[in-house]
């Protein structure tokens, strides 16, 4: 298949592109390489896939020296004209949209970035698919959409109408926009609600990297809600295997969907929503302890109250992903953290 993957300088996009290329797919990668976090890490991910960082210019195609079937272009999803021209020129079979302005807390500081990237950018992806006859689209949603919902494990049959951050609201809007295009134009859209992804090449603004760098450098770590938090931490390889399953088997209409009792996770249109997580939440203190054990060093902890826009716990019900795709995440936390620490020491220390 020829697959457009957006966000290939990002954490999940980089890992997905590599896995698709290794199995023989042709990949066109897009990323705007913004400075939300250290661009050196983004360029290093691209270099890891054979993209010469010296050759990167805006809207210029760069062919990988490692993977002949990989072409990268620096491009913003908000750039509708160039995005549509790129897609029109490439005879693409499927699109996986992972590019987004990420981060719950940053959405409190810079809301406009989220509207431009996550809303304007996503409608441009939908329009490019419609205009170029692309029927297979999967995209990143987020566990953040569950918002004030306290019923756990989170199920995609739950309604998600009470977000607690603008980031979550933009991801909810993506799901609604996708359904409209599935209904109107028959585009097969699948939204994946990611649950706290971690592993090598991870984002520096997320807990694994923040905790690890602080412990290694002898700085205290901030522990929010006084440690009374849990997350459905999911290892990057398990996430990527699930995403590939979805790309290979695009959404179909649900023949049992009832418009009088509408289930929000499917439709009479070719539209689906799935949780993609580990199905096994871990307490924050256990997670910190696992990092401490892998590093052989105890963290100095500053206990703080809950931050605005955050939630106490996340827990993914992944029954639908198991039933529809035989998806089984199998990386134990201690093994995943060990691989992450091994990479961290090579890359940073």
Q: Would you give an account of this structure?
A:
The protein has 10 helices and 14 strands. It has helices spanning about 10-20, 40-50, 80-90, 110-130, 165-185, 205-215, 235-250, 285-295, 320-325, 335-349, and strands at about 1-5, 25-30, 60-65, 70-75, 95, 135-140, 190-195, 195-200, 220-225, 230, 235, 270-275, 280-285, 300-305. The protein has an 8-stranded mixed sheet with strand order 3-4-2-1-5-6-7-12, sandwiched between helices. A two-stranded parallel ribbon has the order 8-11. A two-stranded parallel ribbon has the order 9-14. It starts with a strand and ends with a helix. The model has no long low-confidence stretch (mean pLDDT about 95).
Helical content class? 25-40%
Give the distance, in angstroms, between the N- and C-terminal Cα atoms: 39 Å
Poorly predicted runs = none
Mean pLDDT: 95
Radius of gyration: 19 Å
Structural class based on helices, strands and sheet pairing: alpha/beta
Given the C-alpha coordinates, what overall shape results? globular
**Total strand count, please?**
14
Number of separate helices: 10
- Side by side, the strands of the main sheet go 3-4-2-1-5-6-7-12
Regarding quaternary structure, what we see is single chain
Approximately what portion of the residues adopt beta-strand conformation?
A: 15-25%
């Amino acid at each position: 298949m020829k697959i457009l993957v957006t966000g290939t300088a990002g954490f999940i996009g980089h890992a997905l592109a590599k896995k698709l290329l290794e199995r023989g797919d042709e990949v066109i990668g897009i990323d705007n390489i913004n400075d939300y976090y250290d661009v050196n890490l983004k360029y290093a991910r691209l270099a890891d896939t054979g993209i010469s960082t010296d050759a990167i210019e805006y809207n210029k195609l760069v062919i990988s020296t490692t993977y002949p079937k990989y072409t990268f272009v620096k491009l913003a999803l908000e750039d509708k004209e160039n995005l549509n021209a790129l897609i029109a020129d490439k005879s693409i079979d499927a699109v996986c949209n992972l590019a987004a302005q990420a981060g719950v807390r940053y959405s409190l500081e810079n809301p406009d970035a989220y509207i431009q990237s996550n809303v304007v950018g996503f409608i441009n992806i939908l329009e490019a698919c419609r205009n170029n006859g692309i029927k297979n689209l999967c995209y990143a949603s987020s566990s953040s959409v569950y918002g004030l919902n306290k019923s756990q494990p989170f199920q995609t049959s739950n309604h998600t109408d009470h977000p607690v951050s603008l980031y979550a609201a933009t991801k909810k809007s993506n799901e609604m926009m996708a359904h409209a295009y599935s209904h109107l134009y028959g585009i097969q859209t699948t939204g994946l609600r990611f649950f706290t992804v971690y592993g090598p090449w991870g984002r520096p603004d997320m807990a694994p990297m923040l905790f690890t760098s602080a412990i290694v450098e002898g700085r205290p770590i901030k522990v929010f809600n006084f440690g009374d938090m849990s997350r459905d931490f999911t290892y990057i390889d398990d996430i990527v295997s699930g995403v590939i399953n979805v790309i290979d088997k695009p959404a179909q209409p649900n023949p049992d969907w009832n418009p009088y009792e509408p289930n929000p996770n499917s439709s009479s249109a070719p539209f689906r929503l799935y949780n993609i997580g580990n199905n096994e939440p871990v307490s924050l203190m256990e997670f910190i302890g696992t990092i401490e054990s892998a590093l052989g060093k105890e963290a100095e902890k500053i206990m703080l109250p809950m931050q605005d826009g955050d939630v106490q716990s996340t827990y993914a019900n992944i029954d639908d992903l198991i039933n529809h795709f035989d998806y089984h995440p199998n990386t134990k936390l201690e093994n995943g953290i060990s691989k992450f620490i091994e990479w961290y020491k090579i890359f940073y220390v």
